[in-house]
Specification:
By secondary structure, the chain is α+β, with helices and mostly antiparallel strands. It is built from twelve helices and 22 strands. Bound molecules: shikimate-3-phosphate.
């Protein structure tokens, strides 16, 4: 069973410095925007995970030249009308909701039918959240249940701009519409609940004309279509979502310290740091700087003697949306009862994560109270596991795998965690970095 990770021992104290793999949201966005530019764009430190490789494969199928050179990836874009739409084309988004939802925005003017498919996990996820607004542009989209993959999209020559209200706080929905707007003559207006703003920052850096205003809860975006985009080079900073596993590992390991170098700390992504700090984790940001409009820093974490439970403010949910599983593990080791609410979106991810988070904590002997959109976690600061725990059949959700691994290394017990290769979705170096810190084979 080589695809299964067995852990029988807790990690020893460590003091180390690491870098994590490149940010997934930025890697996918770089590739998609490079595809819309005229000329050669390069990305250094691009995340070479399955989600990003699926993105590059889709662009190749759409007729673009994508090359890996020594230390960079190069895409030769042919502008907004530069895709080759060939009859019978099927694009495979693999496991990636971001790729699947974003690329549909770039297909609304296709002259032929294009089929979008994905793996078992992606085929269970809701696509109506993007197909509904994209149909308003004039694209025809057909799927069995109007909700899930496989989906067939065919553009129309009557594509027109739209007014769109994004009320979920989904950056994927917002970005899909922003990309569609680029292929539209006229102005698209978006009112969007706060969510990660990488696309806006990239548009600004690329000098794509866009009007952006904000109030406390919403962003208002106005985009003029059919603009010329220049090719651009980008060095992708580390992913805070990947860093989060190491933040909690260090917090929960005695007499340890870790410096994670060069991580994207976009304010719309740092909910995990804010939440862990409220729980009394010791985390600080060093060497802060700005790169292409994105904030970047080194993150220093040291062990926490005592974590405190949190009543998590829902206004932090969006900025921590991918980190809740590992935050739940911190809550399991905190003193008191933690409460996370308004997080039903977690069940819309690669696996129903709210359910999986609760299930894993229960297996560990931690009591939870679960509803469809909230969880209470009864923390056990002195938790030591001695029994055997098996984690399998979790739709290969990479973050379920990584949370379980960190739980095993910090709480003890004999763990058997299946589908080790699930990490290739977002963080292929995860186990190698753990081996370096742990000085042991895993
Ligand atoms: C992402 C947005 C988030 C996040 C996903 C990546 C993005 O999804 O969970 O992992 O890159 O735009 P939603 O926009 O659906 O919340």
């Amino acid at each position: 069973m080589t695809n299964c990770l067995r852990i029988n021992e807790k990690i020893k104290s460590f003091k180390d410095q690491i870098t994590v793999d490149g940010d997934k949201s930025l890697s996918i966005r770089w590739a998609l925007m490079a595809s819309q530019a005229f000329g050669k764009s390069k990305a250094y430190k691009l995340l070479k995970s399955e989600d990003v490789l699926s993105t590059l494969e889709c662009l190749r199928k759409l007729g673009l030249i994508v090359k890996f050179k020594n230390d960079y990836c190069e895409i030769t874009g042919k502008g907004p009308d530069g895709f080759m739409f060939t009859r019978g084309l099927t694009l495979n988004a693999g496991n990636s909701g971001t790729l699947g939802r974003l690329i549909l925005g770039l297909l609304i003017h296709s002259k032929v039918k294009i089929r979008l498919i994905g793996d078992k996990s992606l085929s269970k996820r809701d696509f109506s959240r993007v197909t509904i607004p994209l149909q308003k542009f004039g694209a025809k989209i057909v799927s069995k249940s109007n909700k899930r993959l496989p989906i067939t999209i065919i553009g129309s020559n009557k594509i027109k701009p739209i007014n769109y209200f994004e009320n979920r706080g989904s950056a994927q929905c917002k970005t899909s519409v922003m990309l569609a707007a680029l292929n539209t003559t006229g102005k698209t207006y978006i009112k969007a609940k706060k969510s990660r703003n990488h696309t806006e920052l990239l548009f600004k850096y690329l000098k794509i004309k866009m009007k952006l205003t904000k109030n406390k809860s919403f962003d208002f975006i106005e985009i003029k279509g059919k603009q010329k985009i220049k090719p651009f080079n980008y060095e992708i900073p580390g992913d805070i979502s990947s860093s989060a596993f190491f933040m909690v590992l260090t917090t929960l390991t005695r007499r340890s310290e870790l410096l994670i170098k060069n991580v994207n700390i976009n304010p719309s992504r740092i909910g995990v740091i804010k939440i862990l700090k409220k729980m009394k984790a010791k985390i600080s940001l060093k060497n802060k700087r700005v790169y292409r409009g994105e904030k970047v820093a080194d993150i220093l974490i040291s062990s926490s003697k005592k974590l405190k439970a949190i009543n998590c403010p829902p206004d932090l949910n969006s900025s921590a949306i991918d980190e809740f599983l590992i935050i739940f593990l911190a809550a399991a080791k905190a003193e008191g009862v933690s409460y996370f609410r308004d997080i039903s979106e977690l069940n819309q991810k690669e696996s129903p994560r709210l359910k999986w988070g609760s299930k894993i904590l229960n297996k560990m002997g931690v009591k939870t109270e679960l509803t469809k959109d909230s969880i209470k976690i009864y923390g056990k600061p002195d938790l030591i596991i001695t029994k055997k725990i098996i984690i399998k059949n979790y739709l290969k959700d990479h973050r379920v795998f990584m949370m379980s691994t960190i739980a095993a290394l910090t709480c003890g017990g004999q763990w058997e965690i299946h589908n080790k290769d699930s990490i290739n979705t977002s963080f292929p170096s995860f186990l190698n970095i753990l081996r370096k810190i742990n000085r042991k084979s895993l």
